[in-house]
Amino acid sequence: MEPPEPFDTATEILTKIQPGEYLEMLHRRVPYPLFDICTKLSLNHAVEEKGSTNYRIIIYFDDDVMTLKAEGVL
Questions:
Q1: Strand 22-27 vs strand 54-61: parallel, antiparallel, or unpaired?
Q2: Tell me: the pLDDT tens digits for 23-54?
Q3: 51-to-38, 42, 67, 74 alpha-carbon distances in Å
Q4: Which of 5, 20, 53, 72 is the least buried, fewest Cβ under 10 Å from its Cβ?
Q5: What is the largest CA-CA distance in the chain?
Q6: pTM, 2 dp
Q7: What radius of gyration, in Å, describes the C-alpha atoms of the chain?
């Protein structure tokens, strides 16, 4: 996707996400502006670097952290 489509799509998903759900995305860079949205929506995020231009981002509710760890998502 070309900018700003990834940001807009992720923002739309995050405004509708419910406890027990999470957003997983692959991105070519760390999307810091998206993390500001996460903060406003009381969501947490984890970033895993898969290479210098390849990042895996998981956005989730704090109460779901143990479940996501048990499922191997985090």
A1: antiparallel
A2: 999 999 999 999 999 999 999 999 999 888 89
A3: 24, 28, 26, 18
A4: 72
A5: 34
A6: 0.91
A7: 12
